[in-house]
């Protein structure tokens, strides 16, 4: 009789442990398969022509969430740049840090002299989680060749 009671007790304990394990495992599995509440925002990073850049600038003329970044040296910038552009020197030791300080949710047009430095800037901005960035193909050289205006 004692042996039968101890066998029933062992079976009961095993059964209880099995139920607890199933309940705990089901909770974990539900967390892993649950759909996220919000979809992750998609980055928009594109190369555009100077004519498309001009249209982008005109479409955002009064938009405080739009900025034009010239990544040439201050000397190059002083020789002429796109109106309202901000100069952040690609060759500065603080360049990446300066980019990181910018608001990632704004829309940016990036350009340099010929497109090489701005092309190297784009992967940094992608990595820093900028949401919308446009790289101007051919830089200020192509912009000027197409007869588009600059300022000093």
What do these coordinates show?
- The protein is of the alpha/beta class and 152 residues long.
- The chain folds into two domains: 1-34; 44-145, Oxidized Rhodanese, domain 1, CATH 3.40.250.
- Helix content is 47%, strand content 15%.
- The chain has helices at 2-33, 50-59, 74-78, 95-100, 116-127, 139-145, and strands at 44-48, 66-70, 85-87, 107-111, 132-136.
- A five-stranded parallel β-sheet has the order 1-5-4-2-3, with helices on both faces.
- Strand 4 (107-111), helix 5 (116-127) and strand 5 (132-136) form a beta-alpha-beta unit.
- 20% of the residues are buried.
Question: Helical residue percent?
Answer: 40-55%
List the helices and strands in order. HEHEHEHEHEH
CATH topology-level name of the largest domain: Oxidized Rhodanese, domain 1
CATH homologous superfamily placement of the largest domain: Rhodanese-like domain
Second-tier CATH architecture of the largest domain: 3-Layer(aba) Sandwich
Main sheet characteristics: 5 strands, parallel
Radius of gyration: 29 Å
Q: For the largest sheet, list the strands in their spatial order.
A: 1-5-4-2-3
Number of β-strand runs: 5
pLDDT averaged over residues = 87
- Overall form: elongated
Helix count, DSSP H or I runs of 4 or more residues:
6
Low-confidence stretches: 28-32
Can you tell me the CATH class of the largest domain? Alpha Beta
Number of domains: 2
């Amino acid at each position: 009789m004692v042996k039968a009671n101890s066998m029933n007790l062992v079976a009961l304990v095993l059964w209880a442990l099995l139920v607890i394990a199933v309940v705990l495992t089901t909770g974990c599995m539900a967390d892993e398969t649950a759909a996220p509440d919000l979809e992750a925002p998609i980055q928009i990073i594109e190369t555009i022509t100077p004519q498309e850049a001009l249209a982008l600038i005109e479409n955002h003329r009064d938009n405080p969430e739009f900025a034009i970044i010239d990544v040439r040296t201050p000397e190059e910038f002083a020789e002429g740049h796109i109106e309202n552009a901000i100069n952040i020197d690609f060759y500065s030791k603080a360049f990446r840090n300066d980019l990181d300080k910018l608001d990632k949710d704004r829309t940016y047009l990036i350009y340099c002299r010929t497109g090489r430095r701005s092309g190297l800037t784009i992967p940094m901005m992608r990595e820093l989680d900028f949401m919308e960035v446009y790289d101007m193909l051919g830089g200020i050289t192509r912009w000027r060749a197409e007869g588009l205006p600059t300022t000093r």
